[in-house]
Amino acid sequence: MNILFEQLPILEQTKKALQELNFIEATPIQALVIPEIIQGHDVIGQAQTGTGKTFAFGIPIIEKIDYKLSKTQSLILCPTRELTLQVYEELKKLLRYYPQIRIAVVFGGESYTKQFRALESKPHLIIATPGRVIDHIERGKIDLSALKILTLDEADEMLKMGFQEALETILKQIPEERQTVLFSATLPPSIKQIASKYQKNTKILQVPVKKLAVNAIEQYYFLVKEFDKNKLLVRLLDLKRDYSTILFANTKKDVDEITSFLQDKGFLADAVHGDLKQNQRQYVMNNFRKGKIKILIATDVAARGIDISDIKMVVNYDLPHEDEVYVHRIGRTGRAGKKGLAYSFISPRKFSQLKKLEYYLKEKVKFLEIPSVEEIKKQILENFEQKVIDIIEKNSQENANNPMIEKLLQKFSSEQIIQGLLTNIQPKAKNYTDIIPPRMTFTPRETFNNNSFGNRRFGEKRFQNPKFSSYNSYNSYNSYNSYSQKRNDFIEATINLGKKDNINPTVLIRLLKDEYQIYGKNIGNIKHLTHETIFEIPSRFWNQMKNKSDIRFQNKILVINKKE
């Protein structure tokens, strides 16, 4: 049964503000939490982003403030500046009939002078990130001695981001007789530890978790070697050149490197991540909204609070570490009844993670071949042709009496004029770097069916070399490689580096490339033993290996022998 805000024990000013905002029904988390916080209980609310949790804690917080007392009575802590601003914007909507309540927002990356002014006004409510709160407390700018209610929004994210020590510091600065409210998407042991230490008679209020709908989003993946991802990215973005795109990477370093790479290639791209100051972030976001940049590269944390309805495509440069984060990522496209596209770049070593994700989604992410140069060129020409048609149809009458047309027609034929114009404005073909698809021991299209969700192993169709039949996926590169060369052309070789030398397939492949000019595509099975490693190579490479001497690895002279 749906609960109306009219039925909740909230003040008339709040009800009036909600009515004007066209909020009639409370969401499940709001209906559960608001009465409990109003009654003064310590609460843990388990709710996902987009469930109305900001109003769930915001409404009772505002109603508990005594505006006649010019001291900070409520503190809301958020993990990121983006979420801090988002909470602030939401609560401002509720304050239209509470003009006496003063509110301040403080976070890292913004001018201290501006924040000092806001804090000097003795705000009743502060919304902040943990680090900046501690900073202002130490400077004597924030006084929490009269605090009545502390709220931790996205508490699990704060702990993941390493804020536990900061939270403990803040919790020790505030009165023991206070109300503490935690909101979290998950309830890991760390959240329960915080609750047991700093809450009293905690009420845990949960609503059933609903997976975000992804049925309006077409999901695809490419199999690509890690070092070929940038090459693939150029091809994909050229294929979808006019699409507004968010590209997700897992680290700030990757975001910066990808952004620099794309800008060097002439793409309209820019980045947002946690190291940007707020004015820099706002500048980038405004340019993205206006279409001045087409590609936004972001970390998951920095993307919180981005609310743009017309994003056509999401690209996962890497899969996120958590399946739920993937759903939130791709949920930024396919909004407002529109179709969305989501592409993920999967390296062979991450293929099992994709299978796990499909199990979580209960649906298939479709495999795509890497776009060919011919396919891209054809698409670019089709897009250009459509643009020309649109321009002609839009301006057919506007330039009807343009004297230049008559002058040109006196000197040239229509065909010559068109050819001359197209020569100068038609997009020029790029020289794309070759991408060699990874060789898998299975065909990607064959690795998934509706009955495979419970399987732990994928790709059972493996090449079986009797000499290597006992190798498992941890000791053998066979899990990720198959070979187009004829098998009888391969030989087995040994090298005097083994597990005790911390050798692994990646290190060995790099070593063979750097010292013997043998590339990974030519290397077969690899097996690491304690003191040596057995590997396969085509016989034609043996002479160039045996003729090299005095090659060292970690001060150890390498000895390579051919197995008979």
TrEMBL record:
<keyword id="KW-0378">Hydrolase</keyword>
<dbReference type="InterPro" id="IPR001650">
    <property type="entry name" value="Helicase_C-like"/>
</dbReference>
<dbReference type="InterPro" id="IPR044742">
    <property type="entry name" value="DEAD/DEAH_RhlB"/>
</dbReference>
<keyword id="KW-0547">Nucleotide-binding</keyword>
<dbReference type="InterPro" id="IPR011545">
    <property type="entry name" value="DEAD/DEAH_box_helicase_dom"/>
</dbReference>
<dbReference type="InterPro" id="IPR014014">
    <property type="entry name" value="RNA_helicase_DEAD_Q_motif"/>
</dbReference>
<protein>
    <submittedName>
        <fullName>DEAD/DEAH box helicase-like</fullName>
    </submittedName>
</protein>
<dbReference type="GO" id="GO:0016787">
    <property type="term" value="F:hydrolase activity"/>
</dbReference>
<feature type="domain" description="Helicase ATP-binding">
    <location>
        <begin position="34"/>
        <end position="205"/>
    </location>
</feature>
<feature type="domain" description="DEAD-box RNA helicase Q">
    <location>
        <begin position="3"/>
        <end position="31"/>
    </location>
</feature>
<dbReference type="GO" id="GO:0003676">
    <property type="term" value="F:nucleic acid binding"/>
</dbReference>
<feature type="domain" description="Helicase C-terminal">
    <location>
        <begin position="216"/>
        <end position="392"/>
    </location>
</feature>
<keyword id="KW-0067">ATP-binding</keyword>
<dbReference type="GO" id="GO:0005829">
    <property type="term" value="C:cytosol"/>
</dbReference>
<comment type="similarity">
    <text>Belongs to the DEAD box helicase family.</text>
</comment>
<feature type="short sequence motif" description="Q motif">
    <location>
        <begin position="3"/>
        <end position="31"/>
    </location>
</feature>
<dbReference type="Pfam" id="PF00271">
    <property type="entry name" value="Helicase_C"/>
</dbReference>
<dbReference type="InterPro" id="IPR027417">
    <property type="entry name" value="P-loop_NTPase"/>
</dbReference>
<dbReference type="GO" id="GO:0003724">
    <property type="term" value="F:RNA helicase activity"/>
</dbReference>
<dbReference type="InterPro" id="IPR014001">
    <property type="entry name" value="Helicase_ATP-bd"/>
</dbReference>
<dbReference type="Pfam" id="PF03880">
    <property type="entry name" value="DbpA"/>
</dbReference>
<dbReference type="InterPro" id="IPR012677">
    <property type="entry name" value="Nucleotide-bd_a/b_plait_sf"/>
</dbReference>
<keyword id="KW-0347">Helicase</keyword>
<dbReference type="GO" id="GO:0005524">
    <property type="term" value="F:ATP binding"/>
</dbReference>
<dbReference type="InterPro" id="IPR005580">
    <property type="entry name" value="DbpA/CsdA_RNA-bd_dom"/>
</dbReference>
<dbReference type="InterPro" id="IPR050079">
    <property type="entry name" value="DEAD_box_RNA_helicase"/>
</dbReference>
<dbReference type="Pfam" id="PF00270">
    <property type="entry name" value="DEAD"/>
</dbReference>
